[in-house]
């Protein structure tokens, strides 16, 4: 310790850099990953939070039974050694890898898996993903307090977990790869206490909390019991809480952090600074995230949208490339339907609606709306540019939008009450499966379809696909449903948003696929921080 | 005096109770549902209903308020919706950082502000006075978040003399300096102007003319008669100022990533964490009434004519 302090002091005398308390001296910095987060994650309980800050850190400390192959959206075993389905697709048997331990040394057993999954079904946990586990037999009754155990999860021995489902579910494996299925130690002192679990994470990941000074910093060290490949290359992760994104950018330029994450797209003002600074631009990395943005056209509230031709005309009237260029500084990818690029079922051969004003006017005239109509556009807080551009573009075909500004809470409430005519809505992927988009956003039975699209044929196709286990056949049905949605145009399908970040040149590999929900964890086991 | 204190304490309680009622009502009148903030974007109606029941938010507002007061009287200010930690613990955890920043900023403010005020007040219209008047006007007009960002940019990023915000470790004077200085630079202007104006006024009072007539030295006239009397409104201002500083400095703490009550307040407001909003607001109310009491007591020391019954 004294040596490190001396090194830090000497480095401080030599140049400004070493004066910083988090600098450890040149040699010691290798393999340490430092970063800033503006806000400390309020909880480190995998079942209790869905915030991206928490996700970023928890993926270094926790694992689920399943995960995804690096850079591919294919489910792969993680804590599981193997899994198998019963012929009727209703029973899933999962075997645990032997010899896995939590970072406190406790062995991982099937009881830990059951405990962790069942926590989602306890109201006290406040799990946002409760409904994802609804199809497990007995789950709903347990959530409603009618029974004291979830009969559909069996643990015949310490290494085996059996899930019994009410119906076959073609996407169930994805549920077991979700953050909310991360496995916590059921024998840890904090287990079962929501207050304690928020501050005392105990998982099987490559790292564990070494120290956590509330709202100031968190230090993660390697989990000494981690015995799987790949072994992590970095030795420590040091997180400082508090700096704004602007300060983070300055710290990055001073070489004090290894990366700056937008946790979504980087702040627009920050991105402009990156664009205008060649040194920063060199360190800019991004990937297209499967986070679609769209503008719903609610037929229940705007009579004109009852006519498919009007909805299609809205597509032709909006120049999406211009929106991406001007509204997002180019940070978006346009695609045709509701299945974004990267998700199994996405078909690049399906082209998006072209920008064609004449066609738009013609369709409106055919539908009897040649003189246009009025509609209210509820602006999603923080998104000021896109609505105005869309407003200007639709005005050219006579559609008069009134933009209304609301708070996030009002936006939520209006959406829940089905009071939104048009808005700039987005969807953060839960898992890379077409069901996550088509069912949740467009099926008339989904609690998240708040914009009035109802097509029984669409519902039938999606629900049939949801219950299939033959993946290639399943995907074909989703593609048919997607084609139907593209034709019906219940939304203006806009673009996919980018995930971007700044990585120092000494951080390898320079991939930002890291924010793809559960795949995030791979960063912590494969990233290298080279000597600098 | 004892009776006076007793009565004051009673009124303090009434004020705090009143503030708590207003807070509760305002929060409930806002078109915001705290369940949205707790459950997030992806919760189903079933989950939202379960959360509502868990926190008792499905009960009538008067029942909720009654329970809040009952628990608060037992030292339980509820549990943060976001962190699941007790509100009292959250506040206790953040208070030292704010107190530290407030103390540093207050001392710096007094040194700079009273220094500038005295310099201007001794010789109004002089060169020092002109310079100080202009500089106080400038600093008084600068928004703290802007000044803070600029100071961070210059001293933290460009000159690399000081850290880029944050709380630091151990004896973190270097981390404390910029946020305290930012506050002091903007706040001192008010003290300087107030003191200068008061001195200007007091100089023409009869008792000051009498003091001169008695043949007292300039030093005695100023120290004993002018400055002492001119300080009275400054003390009132300082009392309110201290209460404000202690109840958290939302902008400064956010700009500098300082983990105090201001940042907590900001975070609780943006996430609509009602128990924390209530807790921090209540604390502010308590601090304001306490500082007002403190000011009144200091008055007695400064002005012997003031007595309380």
Structural notes for this entry:
The complex is a heterodimer of chains A (532) and B (309). Chain A is of the alpha+beta class and 532 residues long. Chain A has helices spanning 2-14, 52-58, 110-119, 139-143, 172-177, 194-199, 245-253, 268-275, 278-282, 308-317, 320-327, 357-366, 385-395, 408-416, 434-442, 456-466, 471-488, 521-526, and strands at 32-37, 66-68, 75-77, 80-85, 91-96, 153-157, 160-164, 207-213, 217-222, 236-241, 259-261, 284-296, 332-333, 373-379, 399-405, 422-423, 425-426, 491-503, 507-508, 528-529. In chain A, helix 11 packs antiparallel against helix 13. Chain A is globular and about 70 Å long. The two termini of chain A are 21 Å apart. Chain B folds into two domains: 2-73, no CATH class; 88-302, Orthogonal Bundle (MetI-like fold), CATH 1.10.3720. Chain B has helices at 2-29, 34-39, 45-54, 61-73, 87-122, 127-141, 144-158, 173-202, 206-213, 218-246, 250-256, 261-270, 274-302. In chain B, helix 5 (87-122) packs antiparallel against helix 6 and helix 5 (87-122) runs parallel beside helix 13. Chain B starts with a helix and ends in a 7-residue tail after the last helix. Chains A and B meet through helix 6, helix 7 and helix 14 of A and helix 2, helix 3, helix 7 and helix 11 of B.
